[in-house]
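User: Hi! I have a protein structure encoded as tokens and I'd like to know what sequence might fold into it. I'm fairly new to this, so please keep things simple.
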């Protein structure tokens, strides 16, 4: 089924914004195992850590612009570090156990 000729706009938007993420795992696709070797897990881990660090750095920069008290800045930075560590650990766990 091609999206260009056989799907209306509502169907295309549904698949674009609410995809069925398990549709590949619930089929008999024979080539999923090559993507689960250590190279791709390390690549996914590196991408995850860089993306999380980038996001937290942006959050801290924005917080520094708007929070004037030193205690507030320290609190936001501590909260950001805790969230960064917890999200990174959850993401790494999912990558390496799946």
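Assistant: Happy to help. Inverse folding works backwards from shape to sequence: for each of the 98 positions I chose a residue that suits the local structure. Here it is:
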């Amino acid at each position: 089924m091609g999206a260009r000729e056989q799907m209306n706009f509502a169907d295309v938007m549904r698949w674009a914004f609410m995809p069925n993420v398990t549709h590949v795992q619930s089929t008999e696709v024979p080539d999923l195992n090559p993507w689960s070797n250590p190279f791709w897990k390390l690549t996914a881990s590196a991408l995850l850590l860089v993306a999380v660090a980038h996001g937290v750095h942006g959050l801290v920069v924005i917080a520094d612009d708007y929070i004037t008290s030193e205690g507030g800045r320290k609190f936001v930075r501590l909260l950001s570090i805790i969230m960064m560590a917890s999200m990174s650990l959850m993401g790494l766990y999912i990558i390496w156990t799946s």
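A useful reference point when you look it over: Residues 3-97 form one domain. Feel free to ask if any position seems puzzling.
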